[in-house]
């Protein structure tokens, strides 16, 4: 998925949400890489942006996808741009990338999950600095804080390489690992451990699990089918 970059228009936001609905139904899609064409990944929304025309919002639509999401970030990643990035699982930034979520400083409030996903990604204290003070992070600080996972001169190539690696993994195991991470973060430890056990039982009954074991003992690469 490639975004135009710069300021997000209503039509583009609607297209992202519609694309996510198609991806959710297509079991042949196992990993999604998100990039942008512009110098800035996404620096906010256009002045006449119509939030009511897009439901669910792009960040929510992306977060609902079962498959792993890898995003390549360059230039300015602010406001809804950062909210979209936070909905992804693995974030790769260029050395010149910058990150901010200063909507509250400008008299508005993030509405696409930023106030909830940002503290979960970098801690409440650091999120408060970004949300309340408008602190902008450079790439090195963003990586140190855990907002992005790596820095690469060619972030798109790095994101694609990560996606290629993920494609060699069992798709069902990846989906369940993602579910365990996101659902488990909202549960007490005891319930999270129960969730992990339940997902393990589900995975044990799949063809992919049997193929993984067979490949291990045969000392060959596994051929996962997603079933």
Distance between the termini: 25 Å
CATH superfamily of the largest domain: 2-enoyl-CoA Hydratase, Chain A, domain 1
Task: Assign the structural class, choosing from mainly alpha, mainly beta, alpha/beta, alpha+beta, or little secondary structure.
Answer: alpha/beta
Number of strands: 10
**Tally of domains:** 2
What gross morphology would you assign? globular
Quickly name the level 1 CATH class of the largest domain.
Answer: Alpha Beta
- Fill in the CATH topology of the largest domain: 2-enoyl-CoA Hydratase, Chain A, domain 1
Q: Mean pLDDT score, rounded?
A: 90
Number of continuous helical runs: 10
Order of helices and strands: EEHEEHEEHEEHHEHEHHHH
Low-confidence stretches: none
Q: What percentage of the residues does DSSP assign to strands (E)?
A: 5-15%
* Helix share bin: 40-55%
Largest sheet: 5 strands, parallel
Strand arrangement, largest sheet? Answer: 1-3-5-7-10
Nutshell version of this structure?
This protein is of the alpha/beta class.
